[in-house]
Amino acid sequence: MNNLIVFPIILPLFAGLIMVIFRKKIIFHKVLAIATIAAVGGTAFFLLEQIRKEGIQTLQAGDWPAPFGISFVADSFSGLLVLTTSIVSLAVLLYSFRSIGEGREKHYFYPLFLFLLTGVNGSFLTGDIFNLFVMFEVMLVSSYVLISLGGEKLQLRESLKYILVNVLSSSLFLVAVAYLYRMVGTLNMAHLSVRVQEAGVDGLMITVAFLFLVVFALKAALFLFFWLPGSYSAPPTAVAALFAALLTKVGIYAIMRVFSLIFFEEPQITHLMIGVLAALTMLFGAIGAIAYWDIKKIMVYNVIVGVGLILAGFASFTEAGLTGSVYYFVHDMIIKALIFLIGGTIIHLTGTSKVREISGLIRLHPQLGWMFFIAALALAGIPPLSGFVGKLFITEGTFSSGYYWLGGIGLITSLMVLYSMLKIFMNCFWGYTDLTEEEEKGTTKGLLLPIGILTGLTIALGLGAEAVYPYVELAVETLLNPDIYVNAVFGNDVLP
User: Fold this and answer.
1) Low-confidence ranges of the chain (pLDDT < 50)
2) Radius of gyration, alpha carbons of the chain
3) CA atoms of 489 and 186, how far apart (whole Å)
4) CA angle 295, 338, 39 (to 5 degrees)
5) How far apart are CA 233 and CA 235, in angstroms?
6) Which residues contact 200 (CB under 8 A, 6 or more apart)?
7) What distances in angstroms separate CA 219 from CA 163, 247, 424, 476, one per listed residue?
8) Given this model, what pLDDT does residue 66 score?
9) Is the N-terminal amide bond of 235 cis, ω within 30° of 0?
């Protein structure tokens, strides 16, 4: 057993509780938040190295043997996501120091930030499906407050829709868990993998599998994304970037984990449905991205395209497709935070999100302009940036599995994504401007550092793909062979 597995969960939880006690010590909040996230990132990196050398790491809470206690499991897939979460959240945190405002800081912004990370990391590391529900709720309750923090009219209106959708999906989640427990008598994911295979995949089991797919699709914005454009456009830039980078990714992770570990025996049904939903998600998301001339809307619809693309590779359920999905998953967390931070900075400088009302920003802010250009190319999958590697493997995986239509849609929507991003670049940064530094609504002071960090990571992830590949390869091996996960949890113990 490895006690380090719970550190990414308990460190932000306890740090957030301490901040609540010392509510007015804002400087203390900032220092503690940085230290906590850095510690979580260091722990995740150390865990990844242990996983690479020794295999999947597990922890049984309270020393209760699986499946009777709550299991925490860190494989290469979850370890990569926890490490990426730490990096992205640190950059967003640094951005928030100069942008979130004193009012939100005094109303528990930093504790809520860490509580959200508690839920995200817990979702990645739990090995119990009911505990996955609990971690979802920890994350969502924090997001409910963050999305409405500030009390602006738009925030309050969109937060109501966001909360209602997530309460509905959480209720369906409980129903799905209850049915599954009634059918096989366990909640431990590794034990569920064994029990579902023993029970066989009949009509009722397929129905429960689809119920889980509906739940996670709502949370991941897979086809059922009607709630996302407004919800992610309402909060301030730092919160929107955090949501875009992390919240939908937890839903994607849940789909990939559950449908590779528990419901994997009928891929011609379950994975085909995921592929169809992924294709529709990419198409509708890309259409939205090119249709709007509003920076926030373009960014939000590109989040939706990313969801579909990641799950397109997973739907192929081939080694190449899963390699692309895992790699693009990491890339997408970084790039979505990056484009939201840059987009928010543009709005901060000009006071508007309408693309046609902005021009010539690159004359006053060349660093911001060229970092946006790099982000646009990475998002579209132009080599040698990070998006290219993942899209290449996803396309190979979809073609090799016979899903030519899915791979083709991925390529077409990539061009649409590139057009939507270049539309912002050519209109907002290129051309002439009468705007002077004195007339700008804000300043980039303190905002370029986190943007620069994420831009550098995007370049490094593309050029340094070989360094990341061993961890991605281990993650794919576990996703393709659920017995590795099951054996890591139970070891030499006899399954009950």
Assistant:
1) none
2) 22
3) 14
4) 145
5) 6
6) none
7) 11, 8, 28, 23
8) 80
9) no
Dump pLDDT digits (tens) for 378-397. Answer: 999 999 999 999 999 999 99
Tokens 């508007």 locate to 352
Contacts (Cβ under 8 Å, ≥6 apart) of 466:
none
How far is the C-alpha of 71 from the C-alpha of 86, rounded, in Å? 22
Could you tell me which residues come within 8 angstroms of residue 236 by beta carbon, excluding any fewer than 6 positions away?
99, 100, 101, 104, 150, 344
Q: What is the predicted pLDDT for the residue at 410?
A: 96
Residue whose pair of structure tokens reads 């579902």 in the numeric block: 196
Q: State both tokens at 337.
A: 């935070």
Q: How far is CA 41 from CA 83, 95, 319, 407, in A?
A: 5, 18, 28, 34
* Residue 477 tokens, joined: 């091996």
351 torsion bin: left (phi>0), alpha (psi -120 to 50), beta (else): left
Measure the CA–CA gap between 376 and 424, rounded to whole angstroms: 9
